[in-house]
Design a protein that fits this description.
- There is one protein chain.
- The chain is an all-alpha fold and about 210 residues long.
- It is about 65% helix and about 0% strand.
- The protein has ten helices and no strands.
- The relative contact order is 0.10.
Length: about 210
């Protein structure tokens, strides 16, 4: 019985992910306002009833778009563990979130920011979800501090929150400039400043503003 429940849950997750992935591709190609619910259902090969089982509306997709890059895949785990320094392991763990916004482009990122202003979707919530990811980040920050790679002695929980919120602020700035600067390099630089990373380990580009 338990195995059957697990199988059903896995199928649910796969269907939800399929809808998200197909919708994301459509919105990137055509723009949010030019993609209809019918378009998304057709591309995902699901009925409207199935869509509404997972999402309340097209706007509701924006909440869950952000969930896609937070899954730690096998290849990503290998990249994390193979880094020489703890601060690079920490960056490898968080980098895909920034890459996700770059891949989606300024319009989708802008929509996510606006949607959270109009109704809190939880995108910028640093404590409510993803406990396993947060624990891994805090463990790496602790190891980086103990090894002298970072010199900010603030609690690792607060550091994690500050770095995340700082990154989201840069995403908002990137949207305002219509993607005119290197988001990933700027995010890395801002992270290094916030954590006071030992100078020889810094890899970020100068902030563009």
């Amino acid at each position: 019985m338990l195995r059957k429940v697990d199988t059903m849950a896995h199928k649910d997750n796969e269907t939800k992910r399929l809808i998200l992935t197909r919708a994301m591709a459509l919105i990137k190609e055509k723009g949010f306002d030019h993609v209809t619910l019918n378009d998304i259902c057709a591309a995902s090969e699901v009925s409207k009833h199935t869509f509404y089982y997972y999402f309340q509306s097209k706007e509701d997709l924006l909440r869950d778009f952000f969930e896609l890059p937070k899954e730690v895949t096998a290849s990503r785990l290998t990249s994390i563990l193979s880094a020489e320094h703890h601060i690079d392991k920490y960056w490898n763990l968080t980098e895909p979130i920034v890459e996700f916004f770059e891949k989606m482009g300024p319009e989708i990122a802008r929509r996510i920011v606006i949607a959270n202003i109009n109704r809190d979707l939880g995108t910028f919530d640093t404590s409510r979800r993803h406990e396993a990811l947060h624990k891994a980040e805090e463990t790496l920050l602790k190891m980086a501090y103990e090894s002298g790679e970072i010199r900010n002695s603030t609690s690792v929980s607060d550091l994690r929150k500050v770095v995340f919120l700082q990154a989201m602020g840069l995403v908002a700035k990137w949207c305002m400039s219509n993607g005119s600067f290197d988001l990933k390099a700027s995010t890395r630089s801002a992270m290094e400043i916030a954590l006071d990373v030992e100078p020889s380990l810094r890899k970020g580009a100068p902030l563009p503003f």
